[in-house]
Amino acid sequence: MNLNIVLYQPEIPQNTGNIARTCVLTNSKLHLIKPLGFSLDEKHVKRAGLDYWPLLDIEIHESYEALREKYQDGTFYFSTTKAKYFYHEVEFKEGDFIVFGRESMGLPDSIRDSDPNKCIRIPMINTTTRSLNLSNTVSIVAYEALRQMDFPVMK
To answer: Where do the annotations place S-adenosyl-L-methionine binding (predicted)?
Structure first.
C-alpha cells in the first residue's frame, strides 16, 4: 500500500467512486469517515468505480477520532484551501495519510487546527470561485506523493 486517502464525510457518490478508482490504480487505501452523504450500495458510487470496486482496499470509520486512535503513529496531511504550504512542499512517504474534506464545506477547523504545519493546498489563480472538484484534488495530491516516492506503483 502506497498511501492512505481519507475522505472526511464525503457527500457526492460519483466523487467517491472516482477516488476509489484512483486508489485501486495507485495501490492506495481509501478511508471513509462517517456520516456518508450516500449509501455505498448506490449505483452512482459503483458506476464511477466500475469494475475497480471489488479490488478496492477500503476502511470505514465511525469518526475522525476513531481513525486517529487506530492509526496513532501515522503521518497525517490535511488538504485545505486554508493552508500556507503547497502540496509539493512537503515530503510524502509511503503509508502517509492525506485527509480531504467534504465537498460542500472542506475540513472542520478542529482538524485543520490540530496541526497547521501539515495543512497543504493546491495553488489556484482564481480564488473568487469554488475550489477544484474533490476527485481532481485527490488525484493531483496523490500523484505528487507518488512522484516523490519515485512512482512505486510503476515498479
So the answer is: 101, 122, 131
C-alpha cell recorded at residue 8: 472526511
pTM score, whole prediction: 0.93
Angle among Cα 130, 131, 133 to the nearest 5 degrees reads: 115
88, 123 contact by CB (below 8 A) = no
Torsion sign (Cα): 129, 134, 136, 142: positive
Boundaries of every domain in the chain:
4-154
Class for domain 4-154, per CATH? Answer: alpha beta
131 is in an annotated binding site: yes
Please name the amino acid found at residue 42.
E
Residue 136 in contact with residue 128, Cβ under 8 Å? Answer: no
**For residue 24, what is its C-alpha cell?**
485501486
Is 60 labelled as part of a ligand binding site?
Answer: no
